[in-house]
Amino acid sequence: MGICRMQSLVANVKQMIKLNNKQQTDVPKGHLAVYVGEIQKKRFVVPLSYLNQPLFQDLLRRSEEEYDFVYPTGGLTIPCHEEAFVKLTASLHNA
User: Fold this and answer.
1) Example GO biological process term (predicted)?
2) Residue 11 confidence (pLDDT)
């Protein structure tokens, strides 16, 4: 994926975050809520800094391919097993 495409992807996510943060007052500034899971979606709140991480960007690409930024949960939904997401975010947190 080219740099321009990734910038567009991140810009779309940031725009969606602004819209969702107006509705979700329990999300701290500098964070975003995401929904993760194959069948049952679980809500996680992650730092915006994850948007700059290549592994998280890969999840965003998969999300775009799966949902085209139209999410059934009303928020950013990531098509990933919950356990894999927890491991990935733990590695990003420790990096």
Assistant:
1) response to auxin
2) 64
CA 38 to chain centre: 15
Residue 66 CA, chain-centre distance (Å), reads: 13
> Which of 79, 88, 67 lies closest to 16, judged by CA?
67
Contacting residues for 75 by C-beta, under 8 A, at least 6 apart = 20, 24, 33, 34, 35, 43
Question: Which residues neighbour 7 within 8 Å (Cβ) at sequence distance 6 or greater?
Answer: none
pLDDT at 65: 87
pTM: 0.71
**Residue 20 CB burial class (10 angstroms; 0-12, 13-18, ≥19):** middle
